[in-house]
Q: What sequence folds into this?
């Protein structure tokens, strides 16, 4: 795994287990045992006066002026201008009321616990959704794409989707085996749904969850995902922060991050913020991050690929002064073409199935990875 040149600095929040960071109107909210607010990009923090509870705050969302917190003991409510907290557990079933995830879609808030709930009044009341299917499932993540809601389930539960605002759910886990079906996080990256898993890195779905494909990031415990422009950030348990700009290839950016157990991420004011397990909140300038990965129609001093997309002949040119090995893989990781290249090669792709392909060029110093599209 490549390491980009980046440097982290710890903020004045230098202890505590920060499981959630939310950016709202440029302000940074970070949750541990209390909810903290920074209006100066992490230089200083103020408490929002949340009372201590064992286990602290697991997740939270901000909807308008309302703050909705999820804890081991249920939901707590306040506003961005207030430090008074009230409970919002009406309709929730079970004890303890361990809240794993919260998600806002349109005027509704969705809650993941032992099952899925929905609130239409900013968290004051909750309605159970399809409890027969997901009643005993730990729902750790939500995301929405093309009006479809996706829910990630821990304990090897995989991914479920709903096309009717959560009224009913169907399993959508094809391609996720037992080692990769405990879902911790979900995100949307272009046409892809990205799933972070508890034990086996990142998986991608190009078809709204009909099937899932493994990235090259495996055997890593992914806790959280964040999309910023053309870059994907992954916060990991033991592997710090990783970045990618294609979802398949990843690089670590952990220089200066003394405690690489990252539970939450956020971006504000040109800084990337990372909430860690028991070691507070860290930040570093985005300008210091070397973005690593694949770009469409990529042309640089090392390699050029054209035309991209291609229908038949794909030309690859490099400036290397030695022969290199060329390999092309489909998104299932299967090698569909191998050959050597000496500055230039032309590959006839007319027999390739339409879709996205990964191109690798190997030398004794590096491996260059790019992608292209066959139409």
A:
């Amino acid at each position: 795994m490549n390491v980009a040149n980046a440097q982290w600095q710890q903020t004045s929040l230098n202890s505590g287990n920060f499981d959630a960071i939310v950016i709202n109107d440029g302000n940074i909210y970070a949750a541990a045992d209390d909810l903290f607010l920074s209006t100066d990009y992490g230089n200083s923090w103020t408490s929002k006066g949340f009372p201590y509870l064992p286990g602290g705050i697991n997740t939270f969302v901000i909807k308008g002026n309302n703050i909705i917190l999820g804890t081991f003991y249920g939901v707590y409510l306040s506003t961005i201008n207030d430090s008074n907290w009230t409970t919002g557990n009406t309709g929730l079933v079970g004890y303890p009321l361990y809240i794993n995830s919260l998600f806002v879609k349109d005027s509704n808030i969705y809650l993941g616990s032992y099952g899925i709930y929905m609130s239409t009044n900013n968290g004051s009341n909750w309605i159970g959704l399809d409890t027969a299917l997901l009643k005993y499932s730990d729902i750790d993540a939500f995301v929405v794409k093309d009006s479809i809601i996706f829910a990630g389930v821990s304990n090897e539960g995989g991914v479920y989707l709903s096309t009717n605002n959560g009224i009913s759910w169907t399993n959508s886990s094809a391609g996720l085996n037992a080692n990769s079906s405990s879902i911790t996080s979900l995100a949307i990256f272009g046409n892809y749904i990205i799933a972070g898993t508890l034990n086996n890195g990142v998986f991608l779905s190009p078809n709204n969850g009909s099937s899932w494909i493994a990235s090259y990031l495996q055997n890593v415990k992914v806790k959280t995902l964040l999309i910023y422009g053309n870059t994907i950030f992954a916060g990991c348990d033991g592997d710090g922060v990783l970045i990618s700009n294609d979802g398949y290839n990843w690089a670590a950016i952990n220089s200066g991050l003394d405690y690489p157990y990252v539970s939450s991420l956020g971006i504000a004011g040109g800084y990337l913020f990372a909430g860690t397990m028991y070691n507070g909140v860290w930040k570093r300038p985005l300008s210091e991050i070397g973005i690593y990965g694949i770009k469409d129609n990529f042309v640089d001093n090392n390699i050029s690929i054209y035309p991209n997309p291609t229908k038949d002949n794909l030309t690859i040119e490099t400036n290397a002064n030695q022969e290199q090995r060329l390999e092309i893989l489909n998104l299932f990781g299967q090698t569909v073409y191998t050959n050597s290249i000496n500055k230039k090669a032309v590959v006839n792709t007319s027999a390739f199935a339409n879709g996205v392909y990964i191109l690798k060029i190997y030398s004794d110093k590096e491996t260059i990875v790019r992608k292209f599209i066959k139409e």
